[in-house]
Amino acid sequence: MRNAETKTQKSKLKAQNHSSKVKAVGRKVKIGVLDIQGSVEEHAMMLEECGAEVVFVKTVRDLENIRGLIIPGGESTHISMMLKRGGLFDTIKKKIKSGMAVYGTCAGAILLAKKILGDNGSIGVKSFNVIDAEIERNAYGRQTDSFEVDVEIPVLGEKVGYKGNVTRKKVRDFPAIFIRAPKIKSVGKNVEILAKYKNEIVMAEGKFGNAQKNNILISTFHPELTNDIRVHEYFIKMAA
Amino acid sequence: MIKKVLKNTPKLKSGLAQMLKGGVIMDVTNAKQAKIAEQAGAVAVMALERVPSDIRAQGGVARMSDPKMIKEIMKTVSIPVMAKVRIGHFVEAQILEALGVDYIDESEVLTPADEQYHVDKSKFKVPFVCGCRNLGEALRRINEGAAMIRTKGEAGTGNVVEAVRHVRAVKDEIAFLKGAGKELIAEKAKEMRVPIALVEYVSKNQKLPVVNFAAGGLATPADAAMMMQMGCDGVFVGSGIFKSSDPLKRAKAIVEAVLHFNDANVLARVSEGLGEPMKSLEISKLTDLYAKRGN
After folding, report:
1. How far is A72 from chain B (nearest CA, A)?
2. What is the pLDDT of residues B180-237, one digit of tens each?
3. Which of A41, A56, A144, A149 is best to mutate for the B interface (most B CBs within 10 A)?
4. Which one of B193, B206, B227, B278 has the minimum C-beta count within 10 Å?
C-alpha cells in the first residue's frame, strides 16, 4: 500500500537519504516517468537516488521541460491503450522526434520497438516505432518462467585507452530481473546492442529524430526492481 | 562462464504484482468476457466459474474452477491470468500451478477447505495473492508466502463499505507502529503471530512489504477511485463489471477512474451514463460474511 505521503514526497525523502550520490551524476536533470501503470514509483526512486528531478507524467502538460522519459514495466496493452485515450501518444512521439531521450523497460521496451510480435491474437499494442527492433511479448513463457540472472553490460564501465582504441573497463555484472519478459528478436544495423543473455539481446540503444547522439534505450529486464542504480545513471547521462 | 539463473524467487513473485500497480484486475467467467476485460484495459483477469454475487445467490460449496475454462482464458488474452483456490486447499493450488496460471488467489470467496491452516505458499513456484481484514491477517499471509495482498471487503455485494473498513484498519495499524520501540514491536509480533522482522519492516517503512490492492464490493468508478485515494496500489473488481448492464463501458470507466483517481473532472465524465450497476446488498442483511473466513 502506498503511504499517506504522495509519491513525490516519498521519493524526495529517499533522495535526501542518499544526498551523497547527488553529485555523482548530472545535476538535477528533469526526467519524467510515464505515470499510467506499473513500476512507476520504483523508477522514480531510482532516478531520485541518482540525483535527477522526477516528474510524474500523467497528462500532456507534464511533458514540458523534461529531458528524458522513462516508460516503466507494466502491462503493455493497458499502457498503450491509455496513451491513445489521453492524447499523450502524439505529444510524446513529437518530443522524441525533437531529440528527447526515452528509456523503456519491459513493457516500455515493447512500446518503443518498431515491430511487436506474439500478441496472442490480442488487441493491437500501438508502439512509438522509434527503435529499429523486433520484440516479442511474453516470449519466455508465463510467470513461472520469470527469472533473475546477472548479465554483463560493458557500457556501464568507464572508457579507458586512447583515441581509436577505446575499450571499457570490466565491471561487475548487473542483476537483471526478467518478469514475463519480452525478447528482442532482432535489431537494425544502426542499433547498438548493449547486453546479451544466452545470445538473446536484452538491452540496446539507438537514435531517433533530431537527436545528436543515441536517445532511445530499451531493456527487457527491470533495473528499477534492484538496488543497482547504474542503468538509471547511464540513462540520465544520455538525457542530459 | 555459466551464470546462475534464479527462478520463482520472492522478488520475482512480488515483482509481477509491482507491474500490476495502478491497474484493474477483473473477474471473468469465460473467454469472451476475458477479451472484453482486456479491451477495456484490465492489467490481469481472474478466471472463475461463478462471480461472487452468483456464488452468494446460488449457495452450495464453491470450488476451484474447471481447468478447461481457465486454459481457454489463458489462450485468449495476453495479460496475466489469475485463478482462485479454496483457503487451505493445497491440491487445488498444485493443479493451478500445473496449468501455468500467473497468480493464485487463495480466496475467502470460495468455501474454505481447511479451517486451521492456509496453503503454505512459500512451497509453490507460482505467486499467491491473499485477502486481509487487518494488519495481522496481511502479515500472516505474507509470512506464509503471499506475494501480494488485497483487502477482503465483502465480495458479491456491490457494497464498498467493508473494503473501506479493511483498508482503514490496515492503514491505522501501520500508522500505530510508526517509531515503535523494540518492546511494542515484539508484543505486536506475538499478538499477530508473525516474526518480529516483519513487524519491524512495517514500522520502519510504514507500508506492507508487498503490493496491496483493494477488493470486495467495488461497483463504480467512484468506488475504485476512493480506494486509490486511500492509498491502495490498484483494485480488483469482481461481480461489479459483468453483473452490470453495460460491462465494457463500466470496465473502461473503472480503468480510467483508477488512472485519474485524483481528478474529479475525469471521474465525473467517466461516471456518466453507465447504466445500471450490479444488484447490490446491504451488509447487515447478509447471513454469510465471506470476510470472516480464514484469519
Report:
1. 9
2. 999 999 999 999 999 999 999 999 999 999 999 999 999 999 999 999 999 999 999 9
3. A144
4. B193
Domain A4-239, CATH among 3.90.550.10, 3.10.520.10, 3.40.50.880, 3.40.50.1100: 3.40.50.880
Q: Are strands A192-197 and A53-57 parallel, antiparallel or unpaired?
A: unpaired
Give every residue of chain B whose pLDDT is below 70, as ranges: 1-2
- For A70-103, how does the pLDDT look when each residue is reduced to its tens digit (9 = 90+)? 999 999 999 999 998 878 999 999 999 999 999 9
Q: Which residues of B are catalytic, by number?
A: 84
Residue A200 a catalytic site member = no
Digit-coded pLDDT (tens) for A27-70: 589 999 999 999 999 999 999 999 999 999 999 999 999 999 99
Contacts with A, B 109-138, CB within 8 Å: 125-127
Angle between helices B161-176 and B221-229 (to 10 degrees): 0
Q: Which of B16, B21, B205 to mutate to test the interface with A (most CBs of A within 10 A)?
A: B21
Out of A35, A77, A82, whose CB is closest to B78? A77
Within the 147-206 window of chain A, which residues sit less than 8 Å (CB to CB) from chain B?
Answer: 147-151, 173, 177, 179-180, 197
* Chain A CB contacts of B207 below 8 Å: 1-3
Helix axes B182-192, B196-205, angle to 10 degrees: 120
Helix (H, G, I), strand (E, B) or coil at A51: coil
Q: How confident is the model at residue A19 (pLDDT cuts 50, 70, 90)?
A: very low
Interface pTM, i.e. ipTM: 0.91
Say how many CB pairs under 8 Å bridge A and B.
151
Place of cell 496493452: A77
Whole-number mean pLDDT of chain B? 95
Of B11, B43, B208, the CB nearest to A75: B43
With H, G, I as helix, E, B as strand and everything else as coil, classify residue A240: coil
CB A225 within 8 A of CB B15: yes
pLDDT of residue B281: 86
Told to judge if A224 belongs to the known catalytic residues of this protein, a careful annotator would answer yes
B217 CB-near residues (< 8 Å, 6+ apart): B153, B154, B155, B156, B157, B158, B159, B160, B161, B162, B163, B223, B240
Residues of B whose CB is below 8 A from A73? 18-19
| Mean pLDDT for the stretch of residues A165-173 | 78
